[in-house]
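Re: duplicated header lines in exported structure tokens

Our pipeline writes sequence and tokens for each protein into one text file. With two proteins the header for the second block appears twice in some exports. Here is an export where it did not happen, for reference. First protein block:
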Amino acid sequence: MIGAGSRAIGLARPLLARGLIAAATAAFATMWRYAGFAFTNSAFLTGLLDTAYTLAFAIASYWLTIRRAPLSGRTVIVASGLISAAVIMVMALLTPLHAYLWLLLPTVVVGVVLGVIYPAWYSQLRRGRDSNELYRQLGPYEAVRVVAILIGTAGIGLVAHVLGLEPATLMIAAVFAVGGSVALTFPRSDPDDIPAPQQTETPPRPADREIDHRVRLLFGLLAALQLMLAPIVAVTPVLAVEGIDGGVAHVGLLFDLYSAGGVLQFVTTRAAAHGIGVRVLVSAPLALMLGSATAASVLDDMVSAAFLMVSFGFGVASIGTLINAEIQSSVHESERDQHVATFALILSVAFAVGSGLWGLAADFLPVPTIAIITTVSTAVIAALLLVSWRRVSGRWSKSGDPGRCTREAGGIVSAATYRLKRTVFGWHGGRKLTTATFVG
């Protein structure tokens, strides 16, 4: 796993590095989606690019953390930025060939190197921070990333429209290189700061089993939701190029609206911190998503499409951030990278499979028909999510005092952490977390 270190690092440098790489990644995604559809005229092959990227990203992240390789987060971020820059620069030079293969290969390589650094962003955030501070900063940390995606998506559309594909692609490579170079300013991790693998395993306590069951359940339902939400990626290039007779700038605009909705996820995290129940936090964005999908399937115009993108961006980011906050705040440092990688794997594989399947469907079915199918399917999955979440949360009242449960393996006192989970998911009567104690 990637060592987090015990010395706190200010947020400015990680935010700058992550923002630059996130903006470059979003710009690169806009380029491959437009170029893929322009080169092949196939929504399936365009969606296949997203499938290849997300699978490469998730598998690389999961493989690294399962191996628990003691790599420095600083080192892998620098290396990934420079490797991505080199690969995209080669792709830019080969763009005039209009060859699908030279879109697919760089997409896979970039997916792999960015997957390797995914846990590193969170290990840098966790350095020297307790659970209380970690949760407070996770929302802004994710919001800044989404803002960077927003800027990258909008900016590359305009640049490519004015300068062309090749100069815009070279600019993306430069941003990757700068983002990786910023990580050179991060403090080095001390070897003693990297947690040693546990030699013995403590039998799971009842409260630990409750947590593991709840996380697995939410992961499964979230994967199903991602599978249904994948048409956002698969059909947007079709809408932009064929529906409104647009180009790369229009593709960027629609994805920009999706990112703009994602910025609003901070509303959900603030509500969670104030003790709002999970059924409200999940029901509100899902209702918004379902309403916008229904409107888009009936009206089939740009206004409804814009509202669809914003609402889906908000819903996906809100639910994902809630679950990510749960993982980051509930497990020991030695296990967090592995849980984060599992989260990325489940999320990415479902989205990757959905992108390919819905891309294939978009070659044969009109977009309004796809919107109706996904609306009904998402409603069913949302109902299962809320019912299951309620059943699992109800068990807490029968589990005794979770504050008395300690997780001896790894030396973490779980009283504060369990209170955090109750606060985050609205099971603690609105009381806020005030302490977080870690023992070595």
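Second protein block, exported in the same file:
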Amino acid sequence: METDENITALNYSAHAIESIKETLKRLPPHFAQSRDAIQAVSDMLRKSVKFLLPNCAELLDPMHVSQAHIDLLKLPYPITTFEAPWQKVDAVDAGYLDHYKSTRRIALCWEPEATPPQLAHLNIVLERFPQSGVFVLPISWIDNVGFWNVGIGGAFIPYENTMAEIDKAKVSPLSAKAMEALNSAGLLPKKARQFAAEPFILQLEHFESVTASHGRETGFANIMNDSRDEGLAVIQACAVLNCENVATSEVEPAAKLNKARIAKGKEPFFSYKVLALAADRPAMRGEGTAGGSHASPRLHLRRGHLRRLPEKTVWVRAAMIGAASETGTVTKDYRLVKSQNKTS
């Protein structure tokens, strides 16, 4: 099979930081809290450790999240960014307010211990979930205007979480509203289960302007549904990252290109981590290689599943495809490298 869809850094974070600079210039003067919050997001985006995921972040089946996935939820770094192209031919909208096509996604994630001072108030969530967890903030490319948009809010997903059957008698009005939208959009499995997640507000003034017209329940439900894709992406990525047989490889930016960008006053591009099988790790540029035909130096893991063994959990089905592939073309011929120590 022809396999020339190599992984290249998407550089979403650098471009998003540049968009955020423009956003800050355009904010109304009275959006003081939102201004501080968005600036904090820009700073976290810059310092985060960045991972490159395949199209729609589909490392596992997002419609069949299980307790095994939830048990492996743990950020690899206190501040972590996951980037993924989002090319979907059958995309549906599960929101309430005006929504726009977004084919590039960033999930900015951080643990409460890494929350910056400007956002310290968000850590009140630890009163309910003292076991800590992950803040997930969606940052989306809006295709029709060509601009990166920081979410009004995001979702906090606690650690030590539990998947449970949905008891409609105990579902909160907020959750019921969110699930109603997901169900009408065909995004809710027939035997739907749920895990704990809490919406948080990032841009207070923006949220208040939205809820003044649509109500707080709709505002919060909209935040949760806007964060759904990114939340599932994080759960999948963390589950795979915490498998015994998964390692990471580095994609480094070109020094010459970054020098030129800095000279022009632009944000330099960042390095990225790419998931790979620890035993069958695809060779990156500059690494020695073993034998193999149709070698593809940078191919993604894609759509496998978890297998729990007596002493470890592993990721199986080593299908590997290019990052931006919309068709999901699979290759089974790839270069092998001798087993190396697991990296993070």
